[in-house]
């Protein structure tokens, strides 16, 4: 099959031969990015949306936007595949996951290129996304240990009790643009290892990585229909949320949509985990090493252009450290290289769309109007920066003297903007973390073990870093925030997702001696 520049041959739910001529249907040379249902690419649709190369602003493809009927077809494929997949032995499922792990390793660079071409992040960062996804597959390869239930011999006289964990059925996975390979792989490995079948609805902004994943799963031996992909927008999401054959929904995205997904999905009787947005604070105490803290703040604030749910967006400088820390960050920001993700010299790429870039830039303007100090204003290219053409770029921005009432503090900006809030004391700093409506990650930088331990105990957030700015848990723990960063009870990947993707059944067994049997209308007792 033909390929389009930067798009993997594995992403061949994408074909490069559009038949229609009008703008919405796509022009010659633009990839057609379709669905993947029952093991086959389905490129045709009634509606399409544009996919851009954010580094140039050019439209590189048209993604199918599923109708309710398209979603129904994918759910039907997953429902039909469920009985046989659930009956497939645990050891066979694990063998397939091992093969998939190897394929991911073999295709790591190719996946990174697909991610970078549509998301815009630099290639090394995209490769890091694949590396973290591999951890989740590794965990799922140990599912045999995790699916063991408990057993109690002689719970009552001659009565034994055991517990089994059974698959749910069809699981819908709805994912955001910022990790188009990793977030689907936070969900799919454990969901299918537990015996479920999946309908993935990736972001319509960078849809091709999902098709690479689907093809590699097929190549690894996952039977057709066990993992399906429907491309689309809110039309597809709404249908998944109300579909009677969808048992559970794993969602990752912004807080307003996460709240809606949780409320709508649970109203339709589904089990839902919906991870939302973030406003991650990094607290720097006066005793911290300024260079270490500045390196960490710059890496965590501007990596992936700040489009990470675990990006540091607020730096809380406690006491006298503030001036030297802001200066150390300013120096480092001035040296950052912004450019296309495909250029090995680039450290930071563009934002996902022109609209999002403009929205982030507007918040920078509002910050200045509301009284904060623009130490580095990324709306202007620094001296010596090359011409970045029509790409969706915004240079790194550093805002000092931000206060909690400022718009740039209250909203999730999701761009290369670091806000510095100055606090007098540890108590004031931890108060900021705890009063914030989001509670994904929070970090503290200090050389004082007692202060670090107090922060670990006090901070109201799901993931804490001690001298670690982006404390994303390794794949054998679970990932999730508190407050408006998570709707639902269980975190994604790791042990909590095994709980999410299974139902518990408790079996009570007795093999009675007929000679002692008799009618007894009393409520069964254990003693
Ligand atoms: P988004 O909420 O716009 O989209 C997420 C998914 O929901 C996409 O598949 C999208 O098609 C769908 N969607 C969008 N609007 C919808 C609507 N009105 N109704 C139904 N479905 C809709 O998020 P995004 O812009 O793709 O991703 C960025 C956001 O995701 C940020 O807020 C970021 O913090 C968050 N995020 C959170 C985590 C986490 O683990 N907590 C991880 C990654 C990203």
Automatic annotation (TrEMBL):
Its EC number is 1.2.1.27. It comes from the Bacteria. It comes from Cellulosimicrobium funkei. GO terms for biological process: L-valine catabolic process; thymine catabolic process. Keywords: NAD, Oxidoreductase. Residues 1-29 are annotated as: Disordered. This is methylmalonate-semialdehyde dehydrogenase (CoA acylating). It is an enzyme of class 1 (oxidoreductase). Pfam families: Aldedh. InterPro entries: Ald_DH/histidinol_DH, Ald_DH_C, Ald_DH_CS_CYS, Ald_DH_N, Aldehyde_DH_dom, MeMal-semiAld_DH. PROSITE patterns: ALDEHYDE_DEHYDR_CYS. The keyword Repeat does not apply. GO terms for molecular function: methylmalonate-semialdehyde dehydrogenase (acylating, NAD) activity. Residues 48-507 form the Aldehyde dehydrogenase domain.
């Amino acid at each position: 099959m033909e390929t389009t520049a930067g798009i993997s041959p594995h992403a061949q739910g994408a074909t490069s031969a559009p038949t229609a001529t009008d703008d919405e249907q796509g022009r010659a040379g633009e990839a057609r990015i379709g669905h993947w249902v029952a093991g086959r690419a389905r490129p045709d649709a009634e509606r399409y949306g544009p996919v851009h190369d954010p580094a140039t602003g050019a439209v590189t493809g048209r993604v199918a936007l599923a109708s309710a009927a398209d979603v129904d077809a994918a759910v039907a494929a997953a429902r039909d595949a469920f009985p046989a997949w659930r009956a497939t032995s645990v050891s066979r499922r694990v063998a397939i996951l091992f093969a998939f792990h190897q394929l991911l390793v073999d295709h790591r660079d190719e996946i990174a290129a697909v991610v970078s071409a549509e998301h815009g992040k630099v290639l090394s960062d995209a490769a890091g996304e694949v590396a973290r996804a591999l951890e989740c597959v590794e965990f799922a390869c140990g599912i045999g240990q995790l699916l063991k239930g408990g057993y109690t011999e002689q719970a009552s006289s001659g009565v034994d009790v055991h517990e089994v964990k059974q698959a749910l059925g069809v699981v819908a996975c709805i994912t955001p643009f910022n990790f188009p390979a990793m977030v689907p792989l936070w969900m799919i490995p454990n969901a299918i290892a537990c015996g479920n079948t999946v309908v993935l609805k990736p972001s319509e902004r960078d849809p091709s990585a999902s098709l690479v994943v689907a093809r590699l799963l097929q190549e690894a031996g996952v039977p057709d229909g066990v993992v399906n992909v429907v491309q689309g927008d809110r039309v597809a999401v709404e249908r998944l949320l109300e579909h009677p054959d969808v048992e559970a929904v794993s969602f990752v995205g912004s807080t307003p949509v996460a709240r809606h997904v949780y409320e709508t999905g649970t109203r339709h009787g589904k089990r839902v985990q919906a991870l939302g947005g973030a406003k991650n604070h990094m607290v720097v105490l006066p005793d911290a090493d300024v260079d270490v803290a500045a390196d960490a703040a710059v890496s965590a604030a501007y990596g992936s252009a700040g489009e990470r749910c675990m990006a540091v967006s607020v730096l809380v400088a406690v006491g006298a450290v503030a001036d030297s820390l802001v200066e150390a960050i300013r120096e480092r920001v001035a040296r950052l290289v912004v450019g296309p993700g495909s250029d090995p010299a680039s450290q930071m790429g563009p934002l996902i769309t022109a609209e999002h870039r403009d929205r982030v830039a507007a918040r920078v303007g509002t910050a200045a109007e509301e009284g904060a100090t623009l130490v580095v204003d990324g709306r202007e290219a620094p001296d010596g920066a090359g011409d970045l053409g029509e790409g969706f770029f915004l240079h790194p921005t550093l805002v000092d003297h931000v206060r909690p009432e400022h718009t740039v503090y209250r909203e999730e900006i999701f761009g290369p903007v670091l806000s510095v809030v100055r606090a007098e004391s540890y108590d004031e700093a931890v108060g900021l973390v705890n009063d914030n409506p989001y509670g994904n990650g929070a970090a503290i930088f200090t050389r004082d073990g007692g202060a670090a331990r107090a922060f670990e105990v006090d901070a109201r957030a799901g993931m804490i870093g001690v001298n670690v700015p982006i404390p994303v848990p390794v794949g054998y723990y679970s990932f999730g925030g508190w407050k408006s960063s998570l709707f639902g009870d269980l975190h994604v990947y790791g042990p909590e997702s095994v709980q999410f993707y299974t139902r518990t059944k408790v079996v009570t067994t007795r093999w009675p001696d007929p000679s002692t049997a008799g009618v007894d209308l009393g409520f069964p007792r254990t003693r």
